[in-house]
Request: fold
Amino acid sequence: MDILKTIGLKKYYGRGDTTVKALDGVDLTIADGEFAAIVGTSGSGKSTLLHMLGGLDRPTSGKVEVEGRDIFSLKDDALTIFRRRKIGFVFQSYNLVPVLNVYENIVLPIELDGNKIDRRHIGNIIETLGLAGKINSLPSQLSGGQQQRVAIARALASKPAILLADEPTGNLDSKTSLDVMGLLKITSERFSQTIVMITHNEEIAQTADRIIRIEDGRIVGGANV
Reply:
């Protein structure tokens, strides 16, 4: 079953001779539970694509469907709620709240949505990511790798349909990067979590089930399962 699909997705900036085609007709499907890596050089369109998949920016034309729903048919407020409930984000800058401890950072999205915390699920995530001894620590007391683990845990906490990872190892050394990627792989398998990750690092991309290549705003390899 496909959980994520793009149809003729385009994002253009400017007009006429100055038009920049960041995305130029992207057709892509991601299966439920798949771990896919989108690989491309700087300026290839991979970050723009991830932002479209997550509903962070609206396309010039085309569709993004999550669980069969065209997310851009939603008005801004409804899209914000849908994104918070259905899409988890992991960024290379972690984006943790410095005055909240690890546990508080992890459950923050659930509390913002006014939902009940599934403590068993949160406990499983914390155990899987090796954070059990750090739940009362502040982000400033953690290493970069530990902060990224917290960011992953936070993204998983609300049981999203899709987890989107934007260069999740970009600020980490090579050993820590491989550790984090191993945890993402374990997370994908243990929680049957769909993950779409963008990276410029070929070695990191090899961790995924499928590598999708993008150049000049177009998919050039690995588009279909």
